[in-house]
Each structure stands twice: as structure tokens, then as C-alpha cells.
Amino acid sequence: MDDRIAVGYLTRPKGVRGWVVAEPLTDDPQRFESLREVIVEADRRPAARMRIDDWRIEGSSVLLKFAGIDTPEMAREKILKGYVTIPREQLAPLPEGQHYVFDLIGCQVLDAQDVDLGAVTEVLPMPSADMMVVRRPMGGETMVPMVGDFVESVDTQARRIKVRGVEELFED
Predict the structure, then answer these.
(1) Which residue has the higher pLDDT, 86 or 43?
(2) Rounded Cα–Cα distance for residues 125 and 131 (Å)
């Protein structure tokens, strides 16, 4: 999935005609409206190129109807527990100053003196602000709030995030 981005996770069948419930992995479930050709990737199964014939939002989920998947049994056998993926170039552009989480994973976190504090391993959504989980070079993890008071700059091309005012978070 390195060159593809997951936009949904197929959790279970819905009804008897092959519809499946997808957990959206995007902030904008409406983006499924423009998707037609996708690849469904799942462990222990070959990636499957699929066509989305229909879709609709249901609560916090998205219902998808794939061409050739006409029963719950077919859905279970061929695509359930798989990720709906798209090529990176089909990603929606983000506003200035916003970044996709997958672009932050692996970035080096540096302080104001360019001291390596570690690498981002995860970004956790929290009610007040997302938190970067930073794996420290000497072991252990530290969480850093993704807010302007602490994050000075993010350069996903150079794979670097500069932070300030977080020194006490990295003390042992």
C-alpha cells in the first residue's frame, strides 16, 4: 500500500444484495462520490481492482456497492476486512498548514537547536488537539500536542518537524 492511500475499511455486509459497510478513513465521506475505480487490499488475499457502482452515507459509515459483489457471502469471501485504496495523486488537496497523518508518520522531530528528539510513530486524535507520538532515540515515547504553541514548522518533503517549548516532555 506504499503508493496507495486507504480511504475506507470494509467491516461487514449490509443486506442481501452485496452492499458493504465501510468505516471512512477520511474526514470527508463525500469523497466517495467521486470514486469509481479502487483497489481493495486485505491480508492474505490478492489486491482486487473493484468498481464502485453506488454508495451512500449511513450514520458515521459509508455503504458501498461494488460491481460483481451481489451477496453477503461474496462480500465476505472477496473484500471484507479489506482497505479501499486510491492512488496518492487522487487525494484531495489540503488547506495551507494542514497535513495528512500518513505524511507525518516517520518524520524526525527536532527542537530549536536541531537536536533529534525522535520520530513520529502515530498521530492520535484528541478532543482539543491531535497528539504526535514520538519514539525517542534512546527508547520510550512522548506525546506532543499538534498546536502552534509547540509545533514551529512541518516539512513533509524533508521529513522534519521542528518543535519548541516541549523540553520538559522529553526529560527522563
Answers:
(1) 86
(2) 6
Look up residue 162 and give its three cell numbers.
521542528
Specify the residue for cell string 470514486.
35
96-108: average pLDDT: 90
Q: State if pTM tops 0.90.
A: no
Query: Distance (Å, rounded) from C-alpha 53 to C-alpha 35?
Result: 9
Q: Tell me the domains of the chain and their CATH numbers.
A: 4-90 (2.40.30.60), 101-165 (2.30.30.240)
